[in-house]
Amino acid sequence: MGRGGGGAPPGPAGPLGPRNHLMIARADLRCTSCGRGLTAPGAAAFLCPSCGLETIGRDARCRDQSVPYKCKNCGFVGP
Q1: Average pLDDT, integer, range 14-24
Q2: How confident is the model at residue 28 (pLDDT cuts 50, 70, 90)?
Q3: Contact, 48 vs 56, CB < 8 A?
Q4: Helix, strand or coil for residue 64?
Q5: Band (9; pLDDT cuts 50, 70, 90)
Q6: Strand (E) or helix (H) holding 79
Q7: CA–CA distance, 29 with 69 (Å, rounded to integer)
Q8: pLDDT tens digits, one per residue of 39-74
Q9: If we measure between CA atoms, which residue out of 65, 71, 59 comes closest to residue 34?
Q10: Is residue 61 part of a domain?
Q11: Domain hosting residue 52, numbered range
Q12: How confident is the model at residue 12 (pLDDT cuts 50, 70, 90)?
């Protein structure tokens, strides 16, 4: 007997992968909060959770410290 499904089902695979979230290390993308390049381990990029149209970049420090970000497309503010 295995454990039940529990948790949210994975989203469709798209350009950013399952659940539109991707752990990355790319200098051409920048953190939406501080502007640093997303080159260090722990950096991530994902689509805006509100509009799903804008790519939000987060470096490891801003993710760890919950520095707010703002979507340029819809104005959504997230941790």
Answers
A1: 50
A2: confident
A3: yes
A4: helix
A5: very low
A6: none
A7: 15
A8: 888 899 999 999 999 999 999 999 999 999 999 999
A9: 59
A10: yes
A11: 18-78
A12: very low
- The per-residue DSSP string of 5-61 comes to --SPPPPPP-TT-GGGEEE--EEEEE-TTT--EE-STT-EEEE-TTTS-SEEEE-HH
Is 13 within the bounds of a domain?
no
Q: Is 22 within a domain? A: yes
Note whether residue 71 is domain-resident. Answer: yes
Cα–Cα distance measured from residue 50 to residue 3, given in angstroms and rounded to the nearest whole number: 32
The SS3 assignment for 70 reads: strand
d(C-alpha 8, C-alpha 25), whole Å: 26
Structure-block tokens of residue 53: 């149209």
User: Which residues are registered as beta bridge partners of 55?
Assistant: 47
